[in-house]
Amino acid sequence: MHDKQPRTSTPNTLPEVITRYLTAHRAHDTASAITAFTREATVIDDGNTYEGTEAIRGWLNRSATEFTYTIHLTGAQQTDATHYIATHHLEGDFPGGTIDLRYRFTLRDGLIERLVIEP
């Protein structure tokens, strides 16, 4: 991308590694979700930082069982060659009941190096 302007994407145009992670996460398939991350990856969610695949595996297992919710991809954006944002709408039994979250992905060598989840 030469103009450095964010481009709207669709779920079909997100990189395979992101769609693989999102599909596995939605299905609570930790084993498949973890394969989308680099060994040194970092996830930041709800004010907590998880570094490395073992910490991320623990976070994935907890997030799959802590609350019951539905998740719907409402938008996607590519900000440059390695950065993507996937916006999701969640509804469930967590405090507040609904929230829109941005999943900000940084890719390296075809895998997720960093994921920041925030409103």
Automatic annotation (TrEMBL):
<dbReference type="InterPro" id="IPR037401">
    <property type="entry name" value="SnoaL-like"/>
</dbReference>
<feature type="domain" description="SnoaL-like">
    <location>
        <begin position="18"/>
        <end position="114"/>
    </location>
</feature>
<protein>
    <submittedName>
        <fullName>Nuclear transport factor 2 family protein</fullName>
    </submittedName>
</protein>
<dbReference type="Pfam" id="PF12680">
    <property type="entry name" value="SnoaL_2"/>
</dbReference>
<dbReference type="InterPro" id="IPR032710">
    <property type="entry name" value="NTF2-like_dom_sf"/>
</dbReference>
